[in-house]
Protein 1
Amino acid sequence: MKRFEIHVTGKEGIHDPAGENSLHALANLGYVGVTGVRIGKFIQLTAEDGVTCEQVEEMCQRLLANPVIEDFSVTAREV
Amino acid sequence: MRFGVVQFPGSNCDQDVVRALRYLGYRADFLWHRETSVEGFDAIVLPGGFSYGDYLRCGAISRFSPIMESVIAEAGHGLPVLGICNGFQVLCEAGLLPGALVRNKGLKFICKSVPLRVEKSVCQWLDLEPGTVVDIPVAHNEGSYYADDTTLAELEAEGRVVVRYCRPDGTVVPGETAPNGSLHDIAGICNEAGNVFGLMPHPERVTDGVNGSRVGSAFFTAVAKRVAATA
């Protein structure tokens, strides 16, 4: 069995209101020095051994991420 | 004139659209998302709602519904397709329209009537003169239009921005009049041919007069006239 860990984040320059509001909330709690919060998604796929990183990247291109607004990275792990 | 209104699991404006179209005197039938053909329909509407629970991204999963293969193919042959709200998000995910709809600036779900200015465009759906201002309700959480600078420049140059958020007098103040943070204050765009049109506001809610206005009719009548003229 394999595990693929996928991080999906908004592209540079795309508004991330959830991140911006969380940044304000952290400042309100008194945490100083935090200069940015970006909120994305973490997707974990479990797959049979034959599934390749290239196939998972294709899955990201087609469905799991929207390349118009999001970047993604795929890491394979043996389990 | 026969409209097909697609029902995805989670669509919730499908009944409103059918009601509005029937009020205007057109034949309108539901099209279940598992159907595989749009044959026999003169135009297709993808209604608002929360198809597939908006899981993953709005429209991301519905875009692969069986019916969408036929919608995408026939849109390429000129079939008029209108996407309202969630339908607009589906059209962007499907690649029939460029760009994407992202989370509203300010994180609020926005539900109110807003003024829209009709732009000079190649859109086949709109029966209104450029410069006209119409009040149409919006109801969305992910309605902020985003596209890269090249795409935005193309949309502007090719007359594909169809309606823009504006002040009641029709003035557009960049970065200010869009309640959701849409780039270029865009509320609706169309494809190059003008047959595929997507917008966030809901014209079907102000078509039969129940909500005090019939101004939304003009978003459906032009296509019907066009179909009648070519029949």
Protein 2
Amino acid sequence: MNRLNVLLIDDEPERVQALKEALHSLGHHVVCQLPNTTHLNKRVEDTHPDIVIIDMDSPNRDTLESMSTMSKNNPRPIVFFAEQQNDRKTMSDAINAGVSAYISDGLQPDRVKAIMDTAIAHFDAHSSLRAELEKAKTQLADRKVIERAKGMLMKHQGCDEKQAFETLRKLAMDRGQKLPDVAQSVIDVLELTNGLSK
Amino acid sequence: MSAPLTLEKNNLKLGFVALLDCAPLVVAREKGFFKKHGLNVVLCKESSWASIRDKVSFGLYDGAHMLAPMPLASTLGLNGNKTPMLTALALSQNGTAITLSLEFYTLLSKSIADWKDTSSVGAEFKKQVKNSKVKPVIATVYPYSNHHYLLRYWLEQQGINAETDVQLIAAPPTHMIPSLSNGAIDGYCVGEPWNSLALIQQIGGLLTTGHEIWGAHMEKVLGVTQEWANAHPNSHKALVNALYEACQWAEDSANKEELFQLLALPPYLDQAATQLANYTPPLAMEQHFAGKHVNVPDPKQGEFLLGQMLDCGQLSDTDNPADFATISRTVYRQDLFQKWVS
């Protein structure tokens, strides 16, 4: 039986839920999801995942990669998906979708492929939905502030709309603030900067 | 005067991690050094070194702000996908330190007469570690980094076993300060601004710095894949020159106030930089962006890093140290630096 323990680390509830259901229906067991975990080392040791799927934006990626090299006593080393794969296409798709994965050393790579494909599909689908979901959750007035901040960031950073939105989203997470509040502060700062230098 | 070079590519994407030493990239964009050299550069903030490595490896980014050992680790395939990388410019020198929790530091202070006497600091630290009822927990961020090697090097120098006397763990930089103040960890070895922030917020004390442990060493570099460098020699040269000029600007103390205003912009260090604006870091930090030898990607330092990788078990014993010089010369391209930056 190909039932694997999957540890899912992702802080977007809609995506976690959808991916969890999809993996269940493939016959796998999703061990747990840890948004913003502070004790990742211990949780990985306790849950013995066969595969860890983690959002590429998570700072915990470095923590996971450290686990296999920091302590020689680590009972079950996990390795980055790419180390056991010659499948450049899947790796590239995964990175573009924002998925990264770590698998327990010795696990047959082909057993992981179907899980990766499922995760990539869900991350891709979610990424096109994300702005819509955000829109549905925010009031019209807030939406206008977010749009304006996005526009100013695009101009200041020379980036596209997707990256501007991601910048706002990451700022909201880092500061522990709501998106419209972050958007307003970005507008204030960038207006001041333009006023000073130009 | 030679004719201006035709750039193979004008629009570039560079990745960075929000640390103080991403300053040259921020300055090059905000002060127009990229523009001056014919480049439109979008800077992309990443939350992990792992993602920096992957996005450069797979061509999503043209290059990135990288930990000095990273192009080496990637070339050797020590982690992730085996992708030959190189650097023609060191972006910064030093800037790493070991910070202890206030509790651990206060206790240690009682037995230390002079913090400048590094051998007695080490000896007293060792005593306190051996006397601890629970193994002290020390955190770093990423295994292929100066932070990790410096910490192990220093512990070993004091006769402290990194495997049995202390517990080494990994944690994201943003978790370091909360973990230090709530007692989850007893210390950490990380880059700036995370040491200075602990000192400003008075939740930690400075044990020692990377500069005190190793002397001057390269800390961050501009990393690109060898494939990218081969395909874009003129764009690469323009990038190196733009960043080199930005390094000079960032080092100039007359620009300090403006530098911190730029770093405090939301897409870069945001609020972390605001706290540093009026702060003078401990002298022993010796963090530099320019100066004699600061920007040279020195293959000798690459060989030293290979030795560190060997010492902490990241290279297997079958790897031949005789090849170290050759490997290092393909990654740390002092020759390109000397040819391009005059």
